[in-house]
Amino acid sequence: MFNQRVKIKELLSWKPEQQEVTVMGWVRSFRNNQFIALNDGSTNQNLQVFAELGRFDEQLLKRFTTSASLKVSGALIPSLGKGQTMELKATSIEVLGDSDGEAYPLQPKKHSLEFLREIAHLRFRTNTFSSVFRVRHSLAFATHQFFNSKGFVYLHTPIITASDAEGAGEMFKVTTLPFDNTPRKDDGSVDFAEDFFGKATNLTVSGQLEGELGATALGEIYTFGPTFRAENSNTSRHLAEFWMIEPEMAFYDLEDNMNLAEEFIHYLIRYVMENNAQDIEFLSQRLTEEEKQWPQDKRSEMTLLEKLHFVSGNTFERITYTEAIEILVNSPAYKKKKFQYEVKWGTDLQSEHERYLVEKHFKKPVIVSNYPKDIKAFYMRQNDDGKTVAAMDILAPGIGEIVGGSQREERLDKLTERMNQMHIPVEELWWYLDTRKFGTVPHAGFGLGFERMVQFVTGMTNIRDVIAFPRAPKQAEF
Ligand code: 4AD
Ligand code: MG
After folding, report:
1. What residues flank ligand 1, with Cβ below 6 Å?
2. How far apart are the CA of 404 and the centre of ligand 1, in A?
3. By the 8 A CB rule, do 270 and 235 touch?
4. Among 250, 248, 273, 274, which Cα is nearest to 261's?
5. How far apart are CA 286 and CA 269, in angstroms?
6. Which of 59, 222, 343, 360 has the fewest Cβ atoms within 10 angstroms?
7. pLDDT category of residue 83 using cuts at 50, 70 and 90
8. What pLDDT was estimated at residue 169?
9. Helix (H, G, I), strand (E, B) or coil at 413
10. Domain at 125-170+205-465: CATH code
């Protein structure tokens, strides 16, 4: 058997007593022709391998270049040197794969995140990105654990759909039709009858509509999958391909929905603080370092660690959209004309407004509810005032909108009326409307943008640094 290695993370928790072990990993550095810093991806901490002078062939030593992969066996002994409590005194070292140290793009110095994005195929080999991706994994795992413990069913909703769940028209088309010689009808429009599915299809923007079908039978479901949006937003918070977690619950109203979302976010943060303590500590220090380059007013008052403790230990502020507008209009920022976009009841909150509420006014996450119906999707439940819908967005410091959700319109007549007003094709969504015909129930749900959550927890300021291979306008490398 080849793989009888001990992972470095595990090994570093032992007491060194001459145990015979084998480790495998990549060389981070090699100094004084004796000391190899070996990393295997299980932790940011390297294992010091001690290659005693004279014990190994000169030719072999030359191959311990940066990023060469090694298999090392030896005995674990206490270390006399500074910086580590133990080291592996090697009895055998095998080079599994050589690395041209000169050509290797990751030199032992600080690289900018922008540069690392260009070599995203190698950036997992840095401390920052290995921490980010271990934390991302934990958040995914914790998500399943959270919903499973509550008896939710994980529903796999389709990636290719014929509907536009958000009605916003931001879809990538899926087709097998040729680009040249596209079959057309007499009126010149594309004839999808000849397409693979026999109709126009696209990549899903949200699993919600199918999620509602599940919830109105299984009770409580959640989806967790990739979603796609062809919105041309070149920002640090938007991706064209991102992952979303969408729980959908029968017998829930808006308040139940908010309670669940808040509990979920608290759970995720506590989970990583407990299970990824070293990574979070590292990322917190990294952010503090990064912020030293920023203007004073952009720096946070708390370190990442302090912020996570604070957010997971405190309830979120809850206000209505109407109250949010009042706060903004009465703010010093508004009076000093610091907002670029208009603040007026009926218009959507821009990111500058969201950030003001969260970062300056409340200094904690805020749940904003009951938005004007004209700026929200067709499926949201209409409130009695005739102007607003039972929507809720959760806004987080440094991120803005992290969750979007609502109670759903369960009344068939109200729903079809709204769909007609908003030009949503009622006939095509016949299956969606069936849930309102056969035992309709109050129900609600939300979508948590997974990458935005990873950003929040890791303190990474650009969303492209929390997904392995980002998809964004003009960017589909790797
Ligand atoms: O607010 P959104 O558009 O809501 C929905 O899609 C609903 N169907 C969810 C539901 O009720 N089941 O998106 C939900 C969340 C946002 O709050 C944001 O965190 C994230 O998804 N999101 C994006 N994340 C990265 N890149 C983008 N382009 C995103 N668009 C939305
Ligand atoms: Mg939204």
Report:
1. 165-166, 206, 208, 229, 231, 238-239, 242, 244, 246, 401-405, 445-447, 449, 451-452
2. 6
3. no
4. 248
5. 18
6. 59
7. confident
8. 81
9. helix
10. 3.30.930.10
Specify the pLDDT at position 119: 95
Report the residue among 245, 432, 452, 465 best suited for mutation to probe ligand 1: largest number of ligand atoms under 8 A from its CB.
452
* 314 CA → ligand 1 middle, Å: 24
Cα separation of 6 and 19, whole Å? 11
Averaged pLDDT for residues 114-131: 96
- Six-digit token string for 5: 């290695």
pTM equals 0.97
The candidate with the shortest Cα–Cα distance to 391, out of 349, 339, 357, 422, is 349
Name the one residue in this structure whose structure tokens are 């929390």: 466
Q: Which of 219, 205, 141 is nearest to 167 (CA)?
A: 205
Where are the domain boundaries for CATH 2.40.50.140 in the chain? 8-97
Fold held by 8-97: OB fold (Dihydrolipoamide Acetyltransferase, E2P) (2.40.50)
Confidence of residue 101 (pLDDT cuts 50, 70, 90): confident
- Amino acid making up residue 141: F
Query: Could you tell me where in the chain the CATH 3.30.930.10 domains are found?
Result: 125-170+205-465
The token duo for 342 is: 């208009």
DSSP state of 178: -
CA distance 452 to 470: 13
Question: Nearest 5°: CA angle at 106, between 35 and 456?
Answer: 105
Distances (CA, A) of 17 to 39, 165, 442: 21, 60, 63
